[in-house]
């Protein structure tokens, strides 16, 4: 019971910080639309009413600053939204790409405590040497160099103490805000905010589980073992746990250090090809891909090989989804809007109320840029951005794994284009895409697909009479129920309840004042000075309650 009270108090306090931060950066209108202004501090509300001051930055920049100020959960939320141009405007998505989760490192004594708790031994016993200064620090953890007693150079990734509690509390708040928005804000229902928070929870919990990241690393090692150009660090399971991850130390150059790369005489075009080919293999052959291959997660070795780092953000893509993506790409290059719509329906992305005619007009406008082009001639990142804008306009949501795939395509394209500004990713992608299309047309695969489709059709036809009979039977007995959903009534009910409570409170205050006046008139003992004590106490209580009610009304804005 006590723990629940503490948790509730901490949530209310955190709500206040969130609301104050939103108001600070000029998003008071959003707070008012949600009806949660009363949970913020009186000072921030008063400041907002009198004027926010100059807000020279753009809306997307201010939104990014809000997320950065609120901490790791909200930074991760923004990073997730940066790849969801089907949900938020392009300018916000592009701004959220800039979100940084760099924070001051925590003390080495805390690092040692976490390692000892997780691995069950002193740091000095586990490692021959351990650098006290981290080589990198982020919101969830930080990385230290170390040396094992066997002589191996390693890096040790240690999770920030107490971060799980902070994230759990923030997720509780995000769930409550998302649920409230989904119920009370009509526009929010189209985007299923609770599902978005579900997606964030899965992503951030996976990132906090270092054993999951270690398993991801081993899977990439297995998948890419035959690629001589790609290096994946090894995992030391004996020195790893859910909050500690020990890996091989790889001595390389950051992939955006072009001066050093050129100084070593490395071929940038080859480096771009190696990275892109590895990614295409992950997509088209393995169905398991690194979704965050930006320059910070890619090292270039002196011998020209590429090392991949940070395997917390990975994606899965089934063979069926790969085929659907190829179908979508074919539809775009052929200008076949009907085929493209069918692919979107197969993904389960098309809402029932979509205006097909308007969608076709806008879609064909985009297709004019790409119709008849080969894969080599496509500007894939630009095409994805334009298609995402179209999907958002018509309220078409893409599945999370496809959004992650698009992010992966954008980051690997960015890596390649940094290496070689005129590099065409599709030159590498085309052989894989053609291979899948060629494989699909093999007689055996056609026969397998035909057999599967026939089985599903036969099963559906077999079940249809029984299902129709069941529906008619229920209707005949009068048990067929229709569900009606009202919109906006809950807010009205809440307003009526609040008004009733204030009226009842006012009547209680009036009754106390009236009763105190009668006590003073009757001269009831005991006295304070020459005035009855209970009469004075009643007036003091009434004054206190009246001031509290006035402040509450001013704070909530319900005057």
Summarize the topology.
Elements (H helix, E strand, L loop, with lengths): L1 H23 L3 H7 L7 H9 L8 H12 L1 H10 L8 H7 L11 H12 L3 H4 E4 L5 E2 L3 E8 L4 E7 L3 H22 L1 H4 L3 H16 L1 H14 L6 E2 L12 E5 L4 E2 L3 H6 L4 H19 L1 E3 L7 E3 L5 E3 L5 E3 L2 H16 L2 H10 L9 H15 L9 H14 L6 H20 L5 H16 L2 H34 L12 H34 L4 E2 L2 E2 H24 L3
Parallel strand pairs: 5-10
Antiparallel strand pairs: 1-3, 2-3, 3-4, 4-6, 7-9, 8-11, 9-10, 12-13
Features:
559 residues, alpha+beta, five-stranded antiparallel sheet, four-stranded mixed sheet, 23 helices, 13 strands, 62% helix
How is this structure best described in words?
The protein is built from 23 helices and 13 strands. The chain is α+β, with helices and mostly antiparallel strands. The two termini are 36 Å apart. Helices cover 62% and strands 8% of the residues. The protein has helices at residues 2-24, 28-34, 42-50, 59-70, 72-81, 90-96, 108-119, 123-126, 163-184, 186-189, 193-208, 210-223, 258-263, 268-286, 319-334, 337-346, 356-370, 380-393, 400-419, 425-440, 443-476, 489-522, 533-556, and strands at 127-130, 136-137, 141-148, 153-159, 230-231, 244-248, 253-254, 288-290, 298-300, 306-308, 314-316, 527-528, 531-532.
